[in-house]
Amino acid sequence: MKIIVADTKKEGSKVAFDLIKESMNKGIKTLGLATGSTPVDLYKEMTNSDLDFSNMTSVNLDEYVGLAPEDTQSYRYFMQDHLFNQKPFAKTFVPNGLAKDADEETARYNKVIEDNPIDLQILGIGRNGHIGFNEPGSSFDEQTHKVALTESTIEANSVYFENKNDVPRYAYSMGIASIMKSKEIILMAFGKNKAEAIKGMVEGPVTEDLPASVLQTKDNVTVIIDKDAASLLSPSSLEENK
Ligand code: GLP
Q: Are 202 and 53 in contact (CB under 8 A)?
């Protein structure tokens, strides 16, 4: 795990953008994308750049069950709004929140991932160490599946909804096994409220109780954090990464 501590979220997002650019120059075809507040500045860098994504494919991590693509709280809407409307991709995939049958939808999405192997996956991290919507306790062996969100995730994500009761209780999410298939991963985290999850992810045991800790077992993982998110890391973790 390579750890890069940036001064600010903006600086960290620039570092992530440069890494994406470098990989695209080397010919990667498929980006795995994430939602949430964390990648917003990265998507700004992408939309403000002269990089051309029209030959690229994107595969998103997750979507709320029950939300239509045009619902302003859906992750499909988020992606259109923050990135795809300004920078068209050849193909973009997000799970279908309105799918009638959960098993069919997760199987369809697994096929999407199989047909479009992800070269570079962008990840954020939840305060409890979740990645995608793989909450603590999720099996490391799982592919795309339907997830019941935890109270802490519902609470954290309620800031985007008028009312906490409007936050969907379920989501479709790539599983840890799907995420781990990506050839390269960039995980970003900014702010004090991510410091504990980052410490557990980097220094704690590899455990399903903290899903992101699985990344310790993978090559080609770059963690980009700001000083606040790095604040609980022991000096030796940062030293190793100089
Ligand atoms: C949601 C998303 C995750 C994201 C996390 C953190 O639960 N499913 O992909 O990483 O929130 O969100 P934020 O970046 O807003 O802190």
A: no
